[in-house]
Amino acid sequence: MHHLIPEIGLAIIFAAVLAHVARVVRQPLLLGYIAGGILLGPNIGFGLVHSEESIEIISEMGLVMLLFIIGLEIRLPELAGLGPRLFILGIIQFGGCIGIGMAAFHYLGLAGDGSFDLLYLAIAGSLSSTLIVVKLLYDKLEIETAAGKLTIGVLILQDLWAILFMGLQPSLNNPEATVILKSLGGAVMLVVVAALLSRFVLKHVFHLASRNPELVLITAMAWCFSVCALASFAGLSIEMGSLIAGVTIAAYPYANDVITKLAGIRDFFVTLFFVALGMKVPIPELSTVGMALAFIGIVFFSRILTIAPTAFFAGLGLRNGLVTAINLSQVSEFSLVIFALGMGFAHISDDVQAFVLTAMLLASLISTYAIRYNDTMARALSKTFGVLGMKEKSQAGSESGGHGHGSGRDIVVLGYYRIGRAFLERLESYCPELVSRVMVVDFNPAFRKDLENRGFQWVYGDLANPDSLTHLGIHDARLVLVTVSDVFLKGTTTRRLLSRLREINPGANHVLVADEPDDFQNLKGLGAAHVLIPGQITGQELFQWVVHQLDVHEIGYKEGKHAEPVG
Q1: Rounded to two decimals, what is the model's pTM?
Q2: Is the pLDDT higher at 481 or at 53?
Q3: Please, are residues 145 and 380 in contact by the beta-carbon 8 Å criterion?
Q4: Which residue segments constitute the domains of the chain, with CATH numbers given?
């Protein structure tokens, strides 16, 4: 036991060094942590950590803290507001991936000698990596897009399915109805007790602790281990207890402050958890790598087959479904948690755990590039679905009345995102008589009903597809407002888009949004009537506000010398 502290120190050092390497080569830091563990471990690396007991202690502590943090991120009220279509999508995705996975894994003979190998493989193949997906979508600024919201919603639902399965794990060896009901009953009772304590006791404790920031962290940790103790007393795993502890804290008003206070310790223990996983990676064999690649292929195709058609028929959009499926095509760290528990229950064989861990590493690498090019991949796959009769339904025809002449819609808004949304809300408030003159062009059909109920016309249009722009009925528009910039445009740029729009309607006033001041003159030179630079406008607004809060004579403010043209 006295070797534990230096071994934890080595784990952090190796994790830090390999994480820097991962950052340099533009890979998720998670892979750096696992690679650090591989180098430390006795199988492939330098063998600096030999004690199996030390590895288990590090892994167990990291596992408890990881699940506690995952629980903190699950907001039950947000789940209720996701809408029925997303719940249907999440149910079909999880159930469909399990069915496809079990059939495919059985056919390929991937299951080992464990009694529940096939079931665990199917569960692992149905869960995606929250850590990797959220990080990459944040980096791409796609969290707030339609596909981004679908992706996050499905991830939250996947966490719930994983929680339910964890509640069933202890009773799999004796799958009698009474045993399963007892296990589920214990989990439900633990949730109820924890929720009641959180609502009527813990809230007041945290209110008092909030006056002393040091108490917030230690109180949260004490709550976590208290619920773990209750879980152990009820015959459940302490990991299940830590997850429930996190969920109940997430439900009360101090949740964000607790998450902030725990950020540092979260990163510390999550790092140790994945380093410990890396230590367990066996010497790779060709057969293990081959099975891992087969596993990844099944995961990818099961996501496409379950998510894309469901999204299409639910009216969420084929492209959104394809992008969501691509975003979710990797193996979850939650699957590794479930496998770690399964090993403790002797449910699965060592070989299966080895190739699933290998699959997670390879899928994480592949997913980094898949999410980076998700739009390009979705466009290519949409052609295949088009052959099968699933095409994005353009509403520019008879359904929306948007064919050219006589529509009376001479103000065209291309892109219904932040700027377009804010513009329409302001127009609706201050100039409601103009609503009947506005046509909104966007690829996300989820906005159609709301916009049409407010009096706007919605038509389907892919800004990167010249053919769809040609048939939108904008030939006679007076104003064409492109409200998305190059950061959010997929498959084209504002310059190419402007050129195409001027071909379609050279007489209109075209307004565009630029990311950088350098783009201003370029777009103006191409014929833009007006160019907006959001960052510059925000900076000017902030400057004006600051100046008017200060003594203008004292700071030497000179009217008219601060402004820069934005259009």
Answers
A1: 0.66
A2: 481
A3: no
A4: 4-386 (1.20.1530.20), 411-532 (3.40.50.720)
